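INFO batch 0412 | record 1 of 1 | parsing
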Amino acid sequence: MRLVLLAGASGSGKSRLARQVGALVVRLDDFYLDAGPSLPRTGTGIDWDDVRTWDAAGALAALRALLDAGAADVPEYSLVENRRTGTRRLDASGRGCVVAEGIFAIELLPLARAAGLPAEGIYLDRPRTLVAALRLRRDLHQHRKPPLVLLRRGAALWRAQPGLRARALAAGFRPLTMRQAIAHLGSGDAAVG
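INFO prediction complete | emitting tokens
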């Protein structure tokens, strides 16, 4: 079974891409930790972009279970409530590809490879103004946070997107446009490494 870690800016279309190619999707955002006083903070609250807000070991265990056993129980996380609200069962039966997507895919790729998982890294490379518009539309529609928070966070993410891309490429991710990624993931010829 093929394992792809899919990185890209928040709102770049990672979930849409994974669904479009028929992959089993593992939402890495579901591995956030419940909000609490021990999580890293910024001036406006918890810093959800800090990797310390996220359960890397749990994500790795779920990916290993999917590859080894074909199924895994994963948390369900509410971004509105800032906590885990339950679990769900993922079943990889009949799927040739598992796509794990989320903002911490960059940090997960070297961990997955060190753990012996055959992971390929793809960075969904899209223009940052387009990504900002798509992200704002999604976040407003899903009522993720108050609009002013979304606008402030959106501006910060817009400024940070070139650095995110550079970090992904330095970690071993391959930059692909949406069209290139659809063709690559649909072709079945993954190039691990």
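INFO post-check: The CA atoms of residues 1 and 76 lie 24 Å apart.
INFO record closed
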